[in-house]
Structures are given as C-alpha cells and as structure tokens.
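Researcher: Sequence of RNA exonuclease 4 follows. Predict its structure.
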Amino acid sequence: MNSVALDCEMVGSGNRSILAKVSVVDEDGRVLLNCFVKPTEIVTDYRSSVHRITARDLEDGESFNTVQRKVAELLKGRILVGHSLDFDLGVLNLSHPEHNKRDFAKHPMFMKNGLPRSLKDLAREHLNKNIQEGHHDSLEDARTCMELYKKCYRQW
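Model: Prediction complete. Tokens:
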C-alpha cells in the first residue's frame, strides 16, 4: 500500500465552508501535515462547538496556497483514504483520480440503507474505538480512517 489519509476541518463564510485545518497521515499514522490555515474569506461561523477551532488558531495558520501545494504533493501517485473526501478535496480546491480514492462514506460495505454512516459509528463498530468525544479533530479522524483502511483494504 502506498496510501495517505486526509481529513479537514472547516469554518463558515456566509453559506460556504472554507478550510480551517488539514491533517494528512501515512500508513503508520505518522503526521505528514497537520496545520491550521489562514482564512481566504471573512469567517462568519467558526463552528468552534464542533472542532474547537478559534480565530486565534487561524491567525497563526499557514497560507491557503502553501497548504494546498503541500497537500497536492503528498497525494501525488498515492491512494487517498478518508471519509467524505469530496468535501475535503473541495475546500482544498484539489482533485484526485477516482480509482485512487478510498472513501468510507461511499463504499457500500460501510453504508446503511444506501446512506453514508458517520466515521464515529464506523470506528466504534469496526475498530472498537471511540472518537469525536466532545469535538472533532482532523488528526484523530485521519488516523482513524487509515486504521480502518488497513483493517479493510481488501474490500476495495
């Protein structure tokens, strides 16, 4: 396997979501990238109750263009693992070949009645692990996706 797992946290700008934090880990869960991102637009909703990200975190973040370049480089030629990857790639304004995506929100084995299940539920069921206790953390979610993928990669 030559794979990485990606997860992003977002904040609101009007009726849009914009990138606030990005985490990428390797097959062993080691951090390849884990950083806050300076907003590219005025933030109207920090969504702090979901992921505890504050204005202060983003002030000290890296520029969007720098982060986008780093992520693009990390994904090149690799299998991309995650949950609802289209949202993450969308806020990064990046694409990835469909045949190299492993998205737990889209794989029939991990869905219920044709609908995606939460990563929290999948972690509990397949890994006997509790995540997102109180808040979301993109690093924890990326590591969980990789752990789940390593356990189930033969399904793809």
